[in-house]
Amino acid sequence: MRALRLHSEEKGLDFESAVGDFPEDCRFRNLSPRTIEWYRYSLGPFVRFLADRGSTAVDAVTEAVLRAFLVERASQVGPRRVNHYRGTLLRLFAWLEDQARIDHNPAQEVPKLREPQKLVPTFTADELDRLLAQPDPRGFLGLRDRVLMLLLLDTGMRLSEALGLRLDDLDFETATMRVLGKGRKDRIVGLSADLSQQLRRYLQRRQAALADIGRPTCPWLLPNHNGGKAGPKTFQTPLRRYASLAGITRVRVSPHTFRHTFAVWFVRHGGSPFHLQKILGHSSLDMSRRYCELDSPSG
User: Fold this and answer.
1) At residue 8, does pLDDT exceed 50?
2) Domain range holding 130?
3) Is there a single domain that holds both residue 190 and residue 252?
């Protein structure tokens, strides 16, 4: 197996030191805090793995060492998580290569594990009717929760993207919405006529509710009870309650299930993987193709 060859000034570079420098570069490239935290978390086991083998030097890392680590991980976690570890190592070594601190990325030679071809179960129409009937629209927060569910179902956006929407991201003239996705990449998402109508009604109630608590200039489309930016738990907690009240046990009721439901329905109604990729904000066609393949009847 080919070992890393370090440039002379980097001879003896410690892997743990490289891991410490990597997040700083990620912050410089404006990656999300969540992504950076995942990199820290997933690189920790590899640092410990190297220490257990008696060496944390970067030049001790070969394709064989990486494979041995991933085999060990595979005995504890599933293939999807193993591939996440591999992806993080691939990015770290690519960064070291870009920095001219190594001249070969050993992770490039390590293939991904085959993952089970399955998708998260999606909502049925009956389950959605029961779920949407739970929030009490007579109160502003109940109305907000219902509108958020409709928004996720109609656009397929992530919960973090929906909670990050501002009033000026809406454009009723073109029936579109500007969404800030992963990697701080903007994309334009279309609004159905029904969702546009629901949002117009909601905005009237929203303005009155915020004026009552002295926050009439709040920029967030879906604020929390104090008129500030809502965090994930603002929606996740009541969503679990709505699921219990609706008696939904067949499928996990989570914001991501709305996203999967949108994607599957989009494919079933003739949508292409290319357009689905653009709508969902995926960086590649891989996931969109999976929706298409898994929703097709076997031959």
Assistant:
1) no
2) 125-295
3) yes
